Amino acid sequence: MFLKLWRSRSQRLRRTALSVLSGFATLVLAVGLSIGLGAPQAAAAGSLPCDLYATAGTPCVAAHSLVRALYSSYNGSLYQVQRASDSATLNIGLLAAGGYANAPAQDSFCTGTTCIITKIYDQSSRHNDLTVEGAGGAGAADVGAPADALPVTAGGHQVYGLEISAGMGYRDNSTSGVAVNGQAEGMYMVTSGTHVNGSCCFDYGNAETNNQDTGNGHMDAINFGTECWFSPCYGGGPWVQADLENGLFQSDSGYSKNSSNTGTGAMPFVTALLKNNGQDHFALKYGNAQSGSLTTTYSGGEPTTSGYSPMHQEGAIVLGTGGDNSNGSIGSFFEGVMTSGIPTDAADNSVQANIVSVGYGGSTGSTGSLTAGSEISLRATTSCCTTDYIRHQNNAAVVSPITSSSSTLDKSDATWIVRRALAAGAGSSCVSFESRNYPGDFLRHYNYQLYRQPMVGTAQFRSDATFCPQTGQSGTGYSFASYNYPTRFIRHYNYNVYIASNGGSNTWDSATSWTDDVSWVVTAPWAP
């Protein structure tokens, strides 16, 4: 019989913005939340980010999103997907003007095969569309990101974000209206603090037009990750930094002069913002894209090293890599814009309020079943462990007791979203499990043990993250067979979670209590 062991739980730092929106921004936020988190809406109401920036006199010259329209009047394509089975392409548009992505069109087009994202359309009149990036001074030609790697709820709809793994990136080297040679500009992106690393460089913004490092001040892009280019950096990150070429800057000296800026922590959705007058001043801000206002981490002079004052921007747009295609980074992208001129703080605040109104990562609207989009928790049925649930902890899947008095973090770690099977040939009877609080991370097996890992799009990952439910081996609940090891089932053993056979050479294959240990009850989710 499996014996329960006490296991201490690690705690993770989760930072949230503490200040409260005031005045007009508070009103917009309150109205937006009622829209974003209420009944699903095909179209968002009121002014959207590029409307707000235009009203403030700093119009968007680029507006990219896989999730939604960034102008209230926009009704064009958001992005293009390409199907692996026959290389056919499809433009993914909106459910309604000013609304959210028509993700069901992607699901239908990609059924039975896989798709990658080949183009991200610019919603502005400038048509600064991003395509898969070619080779550069520091990296070989990139590949397109898997189209289904980052499912997310936005505006009450199930849509997809862009999940970048190493070797992926997008670019436009021939743009219109983007700042050059010291002109002023602003930019923001909505990203995630849970899918980051310390490699160079997860950027969005202004870059060189030849995929080479052409010198100091030839970039002006938001960087988000855990790479500390200039010491000291405080905390563990990830940080919003300025990639101005040959450095990720948190101040005019490069290193952080703000000891309270310890990074965003594992915040699922982050607003990252940079603005630069191109001459003698730049500013960095971040906010929780789910609630609250923006925090300014730096506002001051350009870097004191030569070449940055004035700036020498070249006007290309990059997403997911550095200016010379340094492409070792990972990151998430949901939406982002670039403006002509520096937006006012009031405009930034209104845009942040609108972002919050989207309800990124909100409830899917379905719970407690194995249908795609349902939020669930998985409870053990072995007599010793009927209050234990599968949860992730330090990236590994474990079982531990979860009760009504458990912490919010523990409840979130024990909540999963049922997704369509990632394995292309699995059919509709199999499923994959996405982490509720780490968007784009899935439960997958590796060397027979289960982990929470970001979806990288390989056939191996897709198979490892696909499970096929059947009646519980004990007669209770469900058992989940591994798609690529069909005689092995998800099992708990000594607090860890494996795919295990009924008897075998591995300790976790023990026949003792096997039928109970591989049987799970699908319950309502612990996280709201």
From TrEMBL:
Domain (Alpha-L-arabinofuranosidase B catalytic) spans 49-360
Residue span, Alpha-L-arabinofuranosidase B arabinose-binding domain: 378-522
SUPFAM superfamilies this protein is in?
Answer: AbfB domain, Concanavalin A-like lectins/glucanases
| InterPro entries to which the protein is assigned, alphabetical | A-L-arabinofuranosidase_B_cat (IPR015289), ABFB (IPR038964), AbfB_ABD (IPR007934), AbfB_ABD_sf (IPR036195), ConA-like_dom_sf (IPR013320)
UniProt cross-references to Pfam families, sorted A to Z: AbfB, ArabFuran-catal
Domain of life, per UniProt, equals Bacteria
Q: Which UniProt keywords apply?
A: Glycoprotein, Glycosidase, Hydrolase, Signal
Q: Per the record's keyword annotation, is Signal included, yes or no?
A: yes
Q: Write out the similarity annotation.
A: Belongs to the glycosyl hydrolase 54 family.
What protein name does the entry list?
Answer: Alpha-L-arabinofuranosidase B
